[in-house]
Amino acid sequence: MSSTSAIFLIILGIVVAQRAGNIVRQVSRGVLPNDAIGTLLTFNLIQFMPMMLSLAIFLATLLTLTRWHRDSEMVIWMSAGLSLRQWLGPIMRFVAPIVVIISVFSLIILPWANEKAENYRNQLKKRDEFSTISPGTFKESTSGDRIYFIEGFDKLGYEVKNIFVQSRQNGKTGIITANTGTRFQAPNGDNFLRLQHGRRYEVIPNSLEVQTTEFERYDIRIETKEAAPAVTSTQNKSTQSLLGGDAPADHAELHWRFAMPISTLVMVLLALPLSFVDPRAGRSLNVMFAILIFIVYNNLLSIFQAWLTQGKLPLFVGLWPVHLSFMLLGGYLYHRRSTLQPLLPTWLSALSLRKAASRRGQQR
After folding, report:
1. Are 5 and 94 in contact (CB under 8 A)?
2. C-alpha torsion 173→30→125→228, nearest 10
3. pLDDT value of position 265
4. What gap in Å lies between CA 113 and CA 90, rounded to an integer?
């Protein structure tokens, strides 16, 4: 379990770094407000949780069995008259709780998180343009007639300091600067930015003259965004509603949710024959091969899900061809391990060795 936790934390760190970097880039461009980073990152982690748990349990099982082979403990196991098949019981008891957690995430928590994330994004789209301004950066308004620059906010974001606003109305360009400002809402619901102790410069068209006006208070109306109507996605629907749906997209999403725990079981069973270590091939070859199989497996699931959504496959077929193919692959690899044969056939191994030898000869 300790190796599983360590691998999961490594995968979690990679996902957090990647998703956080993507969200921060959107914040720096003004697409998202600053206070949305933590919430969106949490929703992203929930969405990736089944995949992270599946990969973590697969690699933990593979590396544990690989260590047994490398330390010759598997030789003692075989010498005692025990076969690889007798590993299935302990592995299934170890994996079963994780598969249950993945099933709960995939069937219950993930649709809820997708719905909440979509609602939160729609709320962000409806927020006014002032909420997306980052301190120390220029931000253009939605209509394109204003440019804002604010040096800093207070903790709640209602008070600002050192404000610069450039506006263009009726062919005239105006520049407003102020030391401080506060945000407030009028009785009719409109949002305003009240600037205090500042100046307004207005450039006269076709002239070098600039009119300067000093003010004690100046109110700027903040435009609100009109978001498009929310469209319900199949990813946001509950599993119960998908069971009663007739659309191909509903069936494809339902097959995908059940595919998460099923693929975890299949990959863990594949780890048993893949764990054998060939001393001449290096320690990491089987791990690289296993990760490649994991990537191909999940990509094929995505392709078949897209085909189901487009109606190119019968609904009763679902994603089962992918699962059955990898089950057969696992059975084939298990048979070769049980009969003490290499994973790859002899002719394929010889072909790869000849290619490697020819490359070495060309390099010399």
Report:
1. no
2. 70
3. 92
4. 33
- What SS3 state is found at 281? coil
Please state, in angstroms and rounded to a whole number, the distance separating the CA atoms of residues 73 and 182. Answer: 71
Report the 10 Å Cβ neighbour count for 346.
9
Residue 74 has pLDDT above 80, yes or no: no
Distance CA 227, CA 125 (A): 6
DSSP letters, 54-73, are HHHHHHHHHHHHHHHHHTTH
Per-residue pLDDT of 323-333, as tens digits, reads 999 999 888 88
φ/ψ of residue 201, rounded to 5: -110, 130
Count the residues in the chain. 364
Residue 348 confidence class, pLDDT cut points 50, 70, 90:
low
Long-range contacts of 330-333 (CB under 8 A, 24+ apart): 330/266, 330/269, 330/270, 330/272, 330/273, 333/270, 333/273, 333/274
HEC-encoded secondary structure of 295-319: HHHHHHHHHHHHHHHCCCCCCCCCC
Task: Considering only residues 75 and 312, tell me which one the structure prediction assigns the higher pLDDT.
Answer: 312
Considering the entire predicted model, what is its pTM? 0.72
Of 155-164, 317-326, 342-351, least confident by mean pLDDT is 342-351
10 Å CB burial of residue 116 (0-12, 13-18, 19+) is: middle
